[in-house]
Design a protein that fits this description.
mainly alpha, elongated, single chain
Length: about 350
């Protein structure tokens, strides 16, 4: 499977749900502040005419300027602002990475059940198609044998009839063999996705169980004020780093689930376009699958994607009666390194 850190870039605050809330809130502050300033301008002029009031006003302005210039103070204010926006957004939207991951676990479980059914249906259709191909091969041999006998007795009509029938069956088998190859690609990919998704679900389950407890402990020991002091002293906020690691897992899992569901939909549409009973199938379904084969690296399959396509299109026999492979879980957890900070 792909490295969860591969091409991962943490989202900018403004691109997150709480960032969008922050933009609306900030816009409201700017508009409200502008209106307040216009209305309060006469009062400010009156205050400026008094020496003591002017000193207080200048001190306030100096404090604002200092906060804008000093990087530590600016980071502190921004941190407090982000925390407030996250709290407000969390009331209406699920932004807690643990909660998101728990939802993804449920999605993975449901998708694995659907994928298992899809693999079973595909296996049945492949058996039917293989039977048709073998039957056609037998009929081709029979018709060619009959054509040879007709040639020996100089029965031109029967010879032409049987030769043409053998030719049509041979042409049909070429198309059906290509179709079987594509179905084999589907079978290999779905089986490997199923295997990798089982490992993914177990890894995410393990991380949620362990990190949920760790996160509660970190949040309890790293209060908002303690985090603020860390930022002022120039140190990283462990609580924020921990949440970013969880968010990176959630983003990686979400991408893989999206790919999983996309391929299941693609394979479902492909299978729906096939009518083996009448020996027809839509070219559009084949084109969609071929397009997927040409697309970039798969997040769920990684470098295995091209190998699976090559195996199906090569001379490697696929035993569709063999049970689905058991997931090969690697030592450790694929997301453990994210928490090395």
């Amino acid at each position: 499977m792909s490295d969860p850190l591969h091409n991962y870039n943490p989202k900018n605050f403004w691109k997150r749900p709480e960032g969008k809330t922050g933009i609306v809130f900030l816009a409201g502050l700017l508009i409200g502040g502008g209106l307040f300033f216009v209305k309060a301008l006469p009062t400010l002029v009156a205050i400026a005419s008094n020496t003591l009031s002017l000193v207080v006003l200048l001190m306030g302005i100096a404090a604002v300027v200092y906060m804008a210039i000093d990087s530590k103070m600016r980071n502190l204010v921004f941190y407090m602002y982000k925390s407030l926006m996250r709290f407000i957004t969390g009331i209406f939207v699920q932004i807690d990475p643990i909660g998101i991951l728990e939802t993804y676990i449920a999605d993975l479980k449901a998708n694995l059940s659907k994928m298992s059914t899809q693999i079973g249906n595909l296996r049945g259709e492949m058996r039917k198609l293989k039977t048709i191909i073998l039957s056609n091969e037998s009929q081709i041999k029979t018709n060619l044998a009959m054509a040879n006998k007709a040639k020996e007795v100089e029965n031109q009509n029967i010879m032409i009839l049987k030769t043409r029938k053998a030719g049509r069956l041979k042409e049909s088998n070429m198309k059906l063999s290509d179709l079987y190859t594509k179905m084999e690609v589907l079978y290999r990919v779905l089986s490997k996705m199923y295997e990798n998704s089982e490992v993914l679900m177990e890894d995410v389950k393990d991380q949620v169980q362990v990190k949920k407890i760790e996160r509660d402990a970190i949040h309890a020991s790293h209060s908002v004020m303690k985090s603020a002091r860390s930022i002022i002293s120039g140190n990283s906020d462990k609580r924020e780093m921990f949440d970013m690691a969880l968010e990176s897992i959630a983003e990686d899992v979400g991408t893989k689930i999206g790919e999983m569901e996309h391929f299941m939909e693609l394979s479902g549409n492909f299978m729906d376009s096939i009518d083996l009973q009448n020996g027809i199938f839509e070219e559009e379904g084949l084109k969609m699958l071929e397009q997927w084969e040409k697309e970039g690296v798969s997040f769920l399959l990684g470098d295995e994607k091209q190998n699976l396509v090559d195996l199906a299109e090569g001379s490697n026999e696929l035993d569709i009666d063999a049970p689905l492979p058991k997931p090969k879980k690697k030592d450790g957890n694929q997301y453990s390194d994210l928490f090395d900070f």
